[in-house]
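Private note to self, pasted from the team thread so I don't lose it. Backbone tokens:
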């Protein structure tokens, strides 16, 4: 029986283009695949912020820990150092917070009540509202500290309280108060806190609705979510866009 490395090498010699990239990706262990995508995003020509946002906003605490270990072993560097060297400002700060996981942090408890701090829900909501109405601009640090340090369950309750008090969805406020990669990262954290499958359904839709499919995003999501929550993503896609994900992908190319 061929070793995995030999099998991948054999496949590479027989295939080409996007189909080769897809098949090799499917043969790669999920954590190694995530680490390689982050390394490519950081070490390519210019930083691919979209990949950093997608992976760091959506992965669980344990997955992030494993990615950090595999990145060091297989990519020959420290992920936090590479992110720090290629990003800056508030965008960098929130990325690093998402990377520096610990037992009190959010994502391992995202579907339980354990990560909810009842006495902080209304306080967090009011702080977010105040942060978006500052006289000299948005208080990004408040948004970052709350989005980066609360459980998914806690954030969902905060978002409900935020809407009840302000009359607005948190996404609308973020879009009106921030721009660029920081806005995209904050929105990704919010959407993943609400529903990771819905976040990926939207990302898939966006990758295929443009003039020309975003093949790399489409492939990355299908590979990385194929054995985790693809059935949920398919259901969300159908509910959100009234079309089958299967049929939509069929029109995007042979690979």
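Design output:
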């Amino acid at each position: 029986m061929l070793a995995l490395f030999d099998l991948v090498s054999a496949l590479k010699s027989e295939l080409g283009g996007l189909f080769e990239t897809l098949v090799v990706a499917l043969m790669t262990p999920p954590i190694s695949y995530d680490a390689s995508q982050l390394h490519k995003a950081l070490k390519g020509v210019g930083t691919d912020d979209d990949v950093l946002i997608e992976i760091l906003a959506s992965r669980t605490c344990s997955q992030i820990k494993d990615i950090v270990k595999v990145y060091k072993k297989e990519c020959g560097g420290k992920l936090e150092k590479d992110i720090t060297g290629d990003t800056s400002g508030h965008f960098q700060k929130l990325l690093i917070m998402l990377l520096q996981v610990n037992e009190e942090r959010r994502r391992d408890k995202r579907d339980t009540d354990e990560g909810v701090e009842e006495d902080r829900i209304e306080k967090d909501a009011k702080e977010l509202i105040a942060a978006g109405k500052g006289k000299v601009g948005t208080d990004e640090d408040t948004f970052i500290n709350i989005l980066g340090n609360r459980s998914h369950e806690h954030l969902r309750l905060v978002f409900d309280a935020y809407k009840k008090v302000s009359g607005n969805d948190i996404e609308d406020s973020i879009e009106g108060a921030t721009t660029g990669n920081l806005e995209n990262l904050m929105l990704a954290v919010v959407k993943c806190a609400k529903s990771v499958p819905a976040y990926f359904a939207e990302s898939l839709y966006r990758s295929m609705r443009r003039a020309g499919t975003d093949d790399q995003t489409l492939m990355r999501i299908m590979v990385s979510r194929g054995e985790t929550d693809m059935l949920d993503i398919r259901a969300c896609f159908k509910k959100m866009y009234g079309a089958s994900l299967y049929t939509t992908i069929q029109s995007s190319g042979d690979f």
